[in-house]
Design goal:
The protein has no helices and three strands. It is an all-beta fold. It has a domain of 42 residues. The chain has a three-stranded antiparallel sheet, with no helix packed on it. Strand 1 and strand 2 form a beta hairpin.
């Protein structure tokens, strides 16, 4: 299950929730219990040996590894 980041427009609380993709829009605010919260756009880092992926310093095929 992924972790999603949220912000509550009611009280301003920012929080993360570990939920299934199908339930990511059903997360209430843990501070004020408001049902309508905004999912924040966040980034992630992937490291591995999958095609097209490389770890820093391991190859010369992309600008991120040089």
């Amino acid at each position: 299950m992924p972790t999603y980041d949220y912000r509550c427009p009611g009280c301003g609380a920012e929080f993360s929730a570990f939920v299934t993709m199908s339930r990511r829009n059903e997360v209430p605010c843990p501070e004020c219990d408001r049902a309508e919260v905004e999912q924040r756009v966040t980034s992630f880092y992937h490291s591995g040996s999958a095609a097209g992926a490389c770890a820093p310093g391991r190859c010369a095929s992309c600008a991120g590894c040089r």
